[in-house]
Amino acid sequence: MSKELDQTDRQIVEILESDGRTRLSEIGKAVGLTGPAVGERLRSLQHHGFIAGFGAQIDLRRFGYTIQALVRIKPRSGQLHNVEKMIEEQPRFSSCDRVTGDDCYVARLLLKDVAELDEILLPFHDRAETNTSIVKSFVFEPRLPPLD
User: Residue 1 has what pLDDT?
Assistant: First the structure.
C-alpha cells in the first residue's frame, strides 16, 4: 500500500518538523485545510510510515552534557560484534552509524566533562582503535532534506 506525498503533505511535515506542538488548526490555516482534515492527513502519514513518531527536543546542556564528541571506532580483528555490543550498552553514546572506510563506526558521545573520555573509552581499547574529535559548535542542527 503505497502513498504519494502531495505538496500539502510536505508542508504539514515541514511545519511539524520545525515545531511538533503546532496545533492542527494552525497547520490548517497555513496549508488551507480545516484542523480535522489536517488530523486525517497526519493519521495517513503515520499509517504509511512518513511520520514515525513525535518527540521533544531536549537541551542536553540543561542536563549537564556540555560536551559532545565524535568517536570513530575501528574494531580489531574478530571483535566487530563485541565492539558493537559495547557501543549499544554505553548509554553516553547518543547515536552510532556503521560506515564504510577505515573505521566501522562513527558514534556521537555525550560528556559532562572532557575527563570522562578516558573512563568511557578505556574499555574499548582492548577490542578497538578509537579516534575522537570534540565538537566545538554546530553549523546547524539535524534538518529535513527537501521533500519534493
Answer: 56
Query: CA angle 107-78-69, nearest 5°?
Result: 15
Q: Which residues of 8-28 are buried (b: 16+ CB within 10 A; e: fewer)?
A: bbbbbbebbeeeeeeebeebb
Q: What is the C-alpha separation between 45 and 41, in angstroms, rounded?
A: 6
Please give the radius of gyration of the chain, using alpha carbons only, rounded to the nearest integer. 20
pLDDT, average across residues 113-135: 97
Q: What is the pLDDT of residue 85?
A: 98
- Domains of the chain with bracketed CATH: 7-47 (1.10.10.10), 60-134 (3.30.70.920)
pLDDT at residue 4, rounded to an integer:
87
Q: Which residues contact 54 (CB under 8 A, 6 or more apart)?
A: 16, 20
The predicted structure's pLDDT at residue 56: 83
